[in-house]
């Protein structure tokens, strides 16, 4: 696809109506995209069109609107399939979120296959979405969770990962990009090690898929989850990629309309991919909106976006490292522009509240990653997360506000 070779951040910002406002009289500096990204007008317009021109339920194609709606919904699946480089669109299952995608794998793939004493390997930087479904299998089935630590700079410790694998490992559940640290894990290496032991890899791509195109085939991912609202799309839509032979061998996760081949009084047969895993009326407009969001970034060029985000990361790192009052966590060279930090003598919640008075939106808390907080010996941190619509001025505003906040605590 051809796209411009430069990234015009002002033009991009102009596409995001929400960014133009003031908060407490200050220009909004939105640094919470790792929790949820804002939506461009192109996505909002597409949602409006989906509801005001082409709306009907999907897959019941006997009238024109149903056909248009189905076509748009299936087109969105193709866009997601291309973004992840899936072998075929039917290997993309639309879900409500990453959370639902991972639960689908835990319940439909893992649950029938694991026995007491089988092992699931996880990193300590997993989001609770990629922890709790495995805990539920621990409680129900007696599987053993084995945790992989990080190196001090917040990267996955690959020696520890290799040591954690055993012939009893059934699943390796690992995040592609940490929502707290922004660090990226070497999925291709992890998948190779897991496959050597006959285990499958569940990759949580919730963050990564918002910062670049994914190649599930090159990565060797067995399952890959992502979520629309972090890729500048609507909430209520996520996607699960699965290898065809795995998906085809899985029973349904939830039952309902649209996921069957036939239903009798005493017997039932299920539909093929992807319908088997999409019971009931799916999030139609949300899927279409997600397709529009990915196409929007495709049009800007992911390479341009990545170059801009790398500039933001390097500048933010330099500015934040220069502030003595704060400690940065997981400060590796190669990472997304996501910064977890704490301020000496201040609770993260208080820091976030003070920054809000400056118009700066950051998050404070455990970031759905309590094992990671444990790893760093804290209960909470602040987190500033940058996206393609942020600027170096946003970094300067953040740095100035942190200095100002610190002055309240000394
Ligand atoms: C946001 C996030 C999730 C959960 O996404 P939902 O859309 O809330 O389901 C899971 N993992 C990571 C790494 C995330 O950043």
Give structural notes:
There is one protein chain. This protein is of the alpha/beta class and about 400 residues long. It has two domains: about 10-40 and about 300-405, Alpha-Beta Complex (Aspartate Aminotransferase, domain 1); about 45-300, Type I PLP-dependent aspartate aminotransferase-like (Major domain) (Aspartate Aminotransferase, domain 2, 3-Layer(aba) Sandwich), CATH 3.40.640. The chain is built from 14 helices and 17 strands. The protein has helices at about 10-15, 40-50, 65-85, 100-110, 130-140, 160-165, 185-195, 215-220, 245-250, 285-300, 300-320, 350-355, 370-375, 390-410, and strands at about 20-25, 25, 30, 90-95, 120-125, 145-150, 170-175, 200-205, 225, 240, 260-265, 270, 325-330, 340-345, 360, 365, 380-385. A seven-stranded mixed sheet has the order 4-10-9-8-7-5-6, sandwiched between helices. It has a four-stranded antiparallel sheet with strand order 13-14-17-16, with helices on one face. Helix 5 (about 130-140) links the parallel strand 5 (about 120-125) and strand 6. The longest helix is centred in the first third of the chain and has 21 residues, at about 65-85. The N and C termini lie far apart (about 55 Å). The relative contact order is 0.17. The model has no long low-confidence stretch (mean pLDDT about 95). Bound molecules: pyridoxal-5'-phosphate. Pyridoxal-5'-phosphate (PLP) binds near residues 97, 127, 130, 204 and 227.
Q: Keyphrases for this structure?
A:
410 residues, alpha/beta, Aspartate Aminotransferase, domain 1, Aspartate Aminotransferase, domain 2, 2 domains, seven-stranded mixed β-sheet, four-stranded antiparallel β-sheet, 14 helices, 17 strands, globular, binds pyridoxal-5'-phosphate
């Amino acid at each position: 696809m051809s796209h411009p070779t430069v990234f015009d951040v002002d033009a991009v910002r102009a596409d995001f109506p929400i960014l133009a406002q003031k908060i407490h009289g200050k220009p909004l500096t939105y640094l919470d995209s790792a929790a949820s990204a804002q939506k461009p007008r192109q996505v909002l317009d597409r949602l409006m069109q989906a509801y005001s021109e082409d709306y009907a339920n999907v897959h019941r194609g006997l009238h024109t609107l149903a056909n248009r709606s189905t076509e748009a919904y299936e087109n969105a699946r193709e866009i997601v399939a291309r973004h992840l480089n899936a072998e075929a669109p039917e290997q993309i299952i639309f879900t409500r979120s990453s959370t639902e995608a991972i639960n689908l794998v835990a319940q439909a793939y893992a649950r029938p296959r694991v026995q007491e004493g089988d092992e699931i390997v996880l990193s300590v930087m997993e989001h609770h979405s990629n922890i709790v479904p495995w805990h539920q299998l621990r409680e129900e089935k007696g599987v053993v969770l084995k945790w992989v630590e990080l190196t001090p700079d917040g990267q996955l410790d690959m020696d520890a990962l290799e040591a954690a694998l055993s012939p009893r490992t059934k699943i390796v559940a690992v995040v592609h990009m940490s929502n707290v640290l922004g660090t990226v894990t070497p999925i291709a290496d992890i998948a190779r090690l897991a496959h050597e032991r006959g285990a499958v890899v569940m990759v949580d791509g919730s963050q990564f898929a918002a910062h670049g195109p994914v190649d599930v085939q090159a990565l060797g991912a067995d399952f890959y989850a992502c979520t629309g609202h972090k890729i500048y799309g609507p909430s209520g839509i996520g996607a699960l990629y699965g290898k065809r032979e795995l998906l085809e061998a899985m029973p349904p996760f939830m039952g309902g309309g649209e996921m069957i081949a036939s239903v009798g009084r005493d017997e039932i047969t299920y539909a093929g991919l992807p319908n088997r895993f999409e019971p009931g009326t799916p999030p139609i407009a949300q899927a279409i909106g997600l397709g529009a969001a990915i196409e929007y970034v495709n049009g800007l060029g992911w390479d341009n976006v990545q170059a801009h985000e790398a500039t933001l990361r390097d500048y933010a790192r330099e500015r934040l490292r220069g502030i003595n009052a704060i400690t940065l966590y997981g400060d590796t060279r190669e990472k997304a522009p996501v910064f977890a930090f704490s301020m000496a003598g201040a609770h993260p919640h208080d820091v976030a509240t003070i920054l809000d008075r400056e118009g700066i939106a950051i998050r404070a808390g455990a970031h759905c990653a309590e094992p990671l907080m444990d790893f760093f010996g804290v209960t909470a941190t602040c987190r500033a997360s940058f996206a393609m619509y942020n600027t170096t001025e946003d970094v300067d505003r953040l740095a100035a506000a942190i200095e100002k906040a610190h002055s309240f605590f000394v």
